[in-house]
Amino acid sequence: MKLAQLFSGFEEELIRQGEEAESLSFVYRSLKNLTFTDFVFALQQEVNEEEKNL
Q1: How far is CA 35 from CA 20, 45, 53, in A?
Q2: Which of 31, 46, 47, 37 is closest to 23 using CA atoms?
Q3: Are 23 and 14 in contact (CB under 8 A)?
């Protein structure tokens, strides 16, 4: 969940600055050339890997 935690921190900072937090995922997805589904799968994969390590 490193990626999810990183995004969470950035989103909170964007909100504090009066920006829309959703734009962060749009920029990330665009830079990585990911569809929304691919983005969700990447987050899910991180969660699954962390659960295996517990």
Answers
A1: 20, 15, 28
A2: 31
A3: yes
The answer to whether the beta carbons of residues 43 and 4 sit under 8 Å apart is: yes
pTM of the model: 0.54
Q: Where are the domains of the chain?
A: 2-52
Question: Looking at residue 1, what is its pLDDT?
Answer: 57
- Only one residue has tokens 């900072």, namely 13
Residue type, 35: T
Q: Both tokens of residue 50?
A: 């962390």
Average pLDDT over the chain, rounded to an integer: 84
Gap between the Cα atoms of 14 and 36, Å rounded: 20
